[in-house]
Amino acid sequence: MTLSQSLFVIGLLIAASAFFSMAEISLAAARRLRLRQMADEGDARADQVLRMQEQPGDYFTVVQVGQNAVAILGGIVGEGALSPHFTTLFGLWLSESAAQKAGFLASFLVITSLFILFADLFPKRLGMAEPERLVVRLAQPMAWCMALLRPVVWFYSRGADALFRVLGMSSLRDDRITSDDILAMMEAGARAGVLAAREQQVITNVFKLDTRMVSSAMSPRDRVAFFLRDEPDSVIRLRIAAEPFSTYPVCEGDIDHVVGYVDAKDLFQRVLNNQPISLADDSLVRKVLIVPDRLTLSEVLEQFRQVHEDFAVIVNEYSLVVGVVTLNDVMSTVMGDLVGPADEEQIVRRDENSWLIDGVTPVEDVLRALSLDELPHAGDYETLAGFLMVMLRRVPRRTDSVSWGGYKFEVLDVDSYRIDQVMVSRLGTAQSAGSGQTIQATPADIATPTST
């Protein structure tokens, strides 16, 4: 062959190798969710690609046969076409044997460089950039190649399958999508600007419903406004005015004997119609949903759906009432600070180095606000108050504090043994508010009490 014919053949071989490289990387990089969307929109090629991804063995066998065959042919043609010309050129300065060696080396470097650049790097980067668009275009030509090379494909594919069986491995692609995969995609979308940070947080909170306990969203026992069934009309009216809520548990004797609940709308209707309010009236008291305190928020949502209610009383293993939860409480957990008035915020940032946090704030919210990964003995409590009790090994008193993870947690207010407010400050900026007990905790969970 003449030089021009050899160069033309080399160009065809480079194009063929580029085709196989692009077909390989585009199928591997194509996202199944995007392909499924294209198939649902009526693109038959996308459906064909999905079937290829499910059984990619024959596809990649064709790619490897094609690439290796083209590479070998390219080396043979290139060496025969370019070596004589490079040998003649180098013969002007070198001896005949040295010129032949230099000519062969130069021919090898030129052919290898052309294949690396135009048959490998460029097509693979292009395939990674737009995998779905390219793979649907290359699917049919690859199907023709698989049909043309069927005997060769069968031989090598069966050989590869045998190796997988010997090694006890599966050759099938695992396309299961986990919650971690979705959260990772949401994080990538937030970094790319596709999702707002607030939207990403809402989606993350939805997935945490399976792990957050109902006690993290409930109104605790000491904050529950309830009626006794035998209370007179005047007491009920005063209670409504003093503690306006949408729903009130109705109890027999004390809060631990709940017999139902009453909706504020029914009470207001009677008030507006100048009718007496008597909770002995069974038509006014509705049947209440009782749930255990070990349920997750997702399980509570499912119970709300089953009984068509949006209010539940939470009891512990001793059948004592520990709090109440509403559908709005669960949704507030999902939406974060998107819902609810500002004066009900459990975490208030005072400045860049300090926060004022309610003692009943769930630990998950505290970790997120402080950018911490975990707190010690995480399985022993669910709220910030519980963390302080576990670390101090007693009911905290005002000015008691715990230092952990670069932060100082100082008790500011205790109301009837309940931790009301906690000041959290970065260490180095925290100032003691008085005398009390301080626990210096380390990541190794070594606590050393010291008096201050």
UniProtKB/TrEMBL annotation:
Domain of life: Bacteria
SMART domains to which the protein is assigned, alphabetical: CorC_HlyC (SM01091)
Keyword check for Repeat: yes
Domain CBS: 284-344
UniProt keyword terms in alphabetical order: CBS domain, Cell inner membrane, Cell membrane, Membrane, Repeat, Transmembrane, Transmembrane helix, Transport
Membrane topology per record: Multi-pass membrane protein
Gene3D superfamilies xref list: 3.30.465.10, CBS-domain
Segments traversing the membrane: 102-122
Residue ranges annotated for the CNNM transmembrane domain, each copy included: 1-199
Main location: membrane
Record keyword Ribosomal protein present: no
Residue ranges, annotated region (Disordered): 433-452
Pfam family, one: CNNM
Subcellular location: Cell inner membrane
Functional note: Involved in cadaverine and putrescine tolerance in stationary phase. May facilitate the efflux of both cadaverine and putrescine from the cytoplasm, reducing potentially toxic levels under certain stress conditions.
Family listed: Belongs to the UPF0053 family. PaeA subfamily.
Protein name (database record): Polyamine export protein
